[in-house]
Amino acid sequence: MHFSRSQREYNLEHCEEDKNVEIKLRTFGSEHQKKALFVVVNACSSKDYMNNIVGVCFVGQDVTGQKVVMDKYINIQGDYKSIIHSPNPLIPPIFASDENTCCLEWNTAMEKITGWTRGEVMGKMLVGEVFGSCCQLKGPDALTKFMIALHNAIGGQDTDKLPLSFFDRNGKYVQALMTANKRVNMEGEIIGAFCFLQIASNELQQALKVQRQQEKKCFERMKEVAYICQEIMNPLSGIRFTNSLLENTDLTEDQKQFLETSAACEKQILKVTRDIDLDSIENGLLELEKAEFLLGSVINAVVSQAMLLLRERNLQLLRDIPEEIKTLVVYGDQARIQQVLADFLLNMVRYAPSSAGWVEIHVSPTLKQISDGHTLVHIEFKIVCPGEGLPPELVQDMFHGSRWATQEGLGAQHVQEDFKANEW
What we know:
There is one protein chain. The protein has helices spanning 5-13, 64-84, 108-114, 118-121, 142-154, 202-247, 253-273, 278-282, 295-312, 323-326, 334-351, 392-399, 407-421, and strands spanning 18-26, 36-47, 53-62, 94-98, 103-106, 136-137, 159-167, 173-184, 190-199, 291-294, 316-320, 329-332, 358-369, 375-384. The protein is rod-shaped. 45% of the residues lie in helices and 25% in strands.
């Protein structure tokens, strides 16, 4: 810093000190050694014993290193501002907060997608005022998730691709993914958070729209299924009550068997109405009940479910079932086994040629004594009919399809796991 003569004389005469004056000094030497030196100088007057000013005293400090760092920081800050606030479409929407979640940055891209200018949001709380009042968030938990991500970033824990959906100033719905990172100063201390938004492309937004429509349709179907299951329960309770009254009357042996078959079918219906969780069905997660039951009761319940269709198609049902099987007590899930066998029998009845006129159930048991004294029973069920039987594409859907094209395929794969779980 240079002073004119009059200014220097004035300062000395009035004993005024010049403090923290930055002086840039030029060095001499070889070309590659020519570097500037920066000195911060304090100047004061020098006096004799009569208190007369006789000179000037300079006290200086070399601040070249600090000056270089500060200049770099200023340049970086300038570059940062030019990048952040560039209207270039490649610059993503960016906003920043201090350690108290107040808005410290709101770039041009944020102004564009929200409709709120930088001046309108600067200094406001990002949680509640900016996102919540200015930009209304979608969903009851969205504000909580946004607040947690912001505080995590301020605490040093970054968040990547958090779904953030909100309404802009004009009520337009905006879907984005937010990445939140910590902000640090020159000493490496965390002083806030930087947040970047990734806006979904038109193709992705269209895909998300289709997905929402499918989810809505699936939800409506689930409501219908839940309604049907609820409505089935009411008359089913009436049937169960009526059967309980009949059990207390004088019944013949045939009538007792009819009631037993009816009760077995009721139990199967009750089991099905509770299986409304389609995700569990697709994943093969079905809860099994294990209890002792007569295999003959299962066969009677299965046959009863196919009798009306057999009569309608004028088909005869043939049974090749050993007598000892009918009185065999086994252990497993009775309702599930009935469901499996009834599905397979009804499918065969539907596709059996009516001109030939028959469907046959063949049961062959194999007993095996195991080491702990128990007997392992392996029972093979065969359901056959003349002609070609089930169509190959239906068999493929029933046993090998990952997505079902037919109701028969859904029913078959729904209960296939029961055969694996119920080993007698």
